Amino acid sequence: MALKSAWLNLNLDCALNFRSASATMKVFIQPNxxxxxxxxxxxxxxxxxxxxxxxxxxxxxxxxxxxxxxxPKSEPIxxxxxxxxxxxxxxxxHFASNTTITTNDLKKDSIAxxxxxxxxxxxxxxxxxxxxxxxxxxxxxxxxxxxxxxEQNLVQKEIDTLCLKWNITPSKKKSTFFISHDIxxxxxxxxxxxxxxxxxxxxxxxxxxxxxxFTNKQHWKNIDQIIKLNSEKDILSTFFWIVNKGxxxxxxxxxxxxxxxERHLLKMVDDSKFVNGLHKSCSTMSxxxxxxxxxxxxxxxRYHFLKFLSHSDWKKVSDSALTFDCSLGFxxxxxxxxxxxxxxxxxxxxxxKPFDFVEAPLHFMDGTFHKYMKIARNETAKNIINFYENxxxxxxxxxxxxxxxxxxxxxxxxxxxxxxxLAFIYENKIECVMPNQLINENKIxx
Length: 446
Known about the structure:
By secondary structure, the protein is α/β, with parallel strands linked by helices. The protein has 17 helices and 13 strands. It has helices at residues 2-6, 12-15, 36-50, 79-87, 110-118, 143-146, 154-165, 189-199, 203-214, 223-231, 263-271, 287-293, 310-318, 366-372, 380-390, 412-427, 435-442; strands at residues 24-29, 53-56, 65-67, 176-183, 238-241, 275-280, 300-303, 324-325, 347-348, 353-354, 358-359, 364-365, 396-400. The strands form 3 sheets. An 8-stranded parallel sheet has the order 11-8-7-6-5-4-13-12, sandwiched between helices. The chain has a 3-stranded parallel sheet with strand order 2-1-3, with helices on one face. Strands 9-10 form a two-stranded antiparallel ribbon. Strand 7 (300-303), helix 13 and strand 8 (324-325) form a beta-alpha-beta unit. Helix 3 (36-50) crosses helix 5 (110-118). The protein is globular, with a radius of gyration of 23 Å. The model is unreliable at 1-22 and 194-198 (pLDDT under 50).
């Protein structure tokens, strides 16, 4: 009966060729090899993706799938790639013209290919030319830009191909949304909305802004409105707060508020069953120092200004109390920065093991559409919805909408676009997940 349940929607002739998702497959990986830990890690990733169990055995003759350069039935192994990882010196020509890592006899090593993409190995030891003036890895320096595949979930395609090869039923879990709000400024509306109103001769708006300023009801101090709007569609979301005020490193503006004077806003979030997190400021303070300073009662984070460099900052995240980060996204373009749609546990190349936290890549940000790509405002929701529909399974889509974009003035039409997205989520019964759920679903047992 279990097999019938698992294969209910499959043609019987096809289904008989596949294992049930719960069937354990035996795997042998040559111990003490340069490819052992990476292969094991990718298989653990696949376990989470398709709800498949792998049993690691100590002899090749006991394995259903084998990685051993001395064995005739071994899966392809790109030895040179694993040697490069061990030496911490990757060839910059990987993915120069295609998204495949091959053996010496040009067979695809799918494990190496998945590992390279998921863990942003193109960003390992980046050159100065690959970074922008703020030290962020540039989209234009990526293979996604060069090969025009930023909108393709390439890792999922590789996993599905391996599943078919190994007679495992690929997963078709409905994609979810993880919705969050970075709180950079709550007092900027008077000047920014005010300038917009004067420019557009909206005298009534100017008067309203002046009144709200005197009554301490600033238009961007709208946490209650965001909570109400999301709650109307049965959606919970996460708010990320900056603990340092004023200009930070490289003159980047941090918060325009003192977090200790806004404790009531964080309490409002908690009381509403929404979630607070740290928005790591551009400063010399450590993550743990900021968590303590802001009395942030969670272990979730996103780097402010997306001033984040994967491998070096993953080390900082791992050295802190954090269990969850969601900074991995290109500011300049929406899509898959690591060619993968799901949250995952990054791999620590220096210590040859997974880091101890989960990363949820950022796929959509309001400012990406508005300031970087300059997409027509009334096309924003359409782009996001179309992207979801093209990737409707096996993705945990991270959507960032700043509190400043919940406005009737300077960014007025972006509020309408957000409402369109919420309506799409609600009408299609799409699950919205929270950090702890993403951690529980994607943390691997090492």
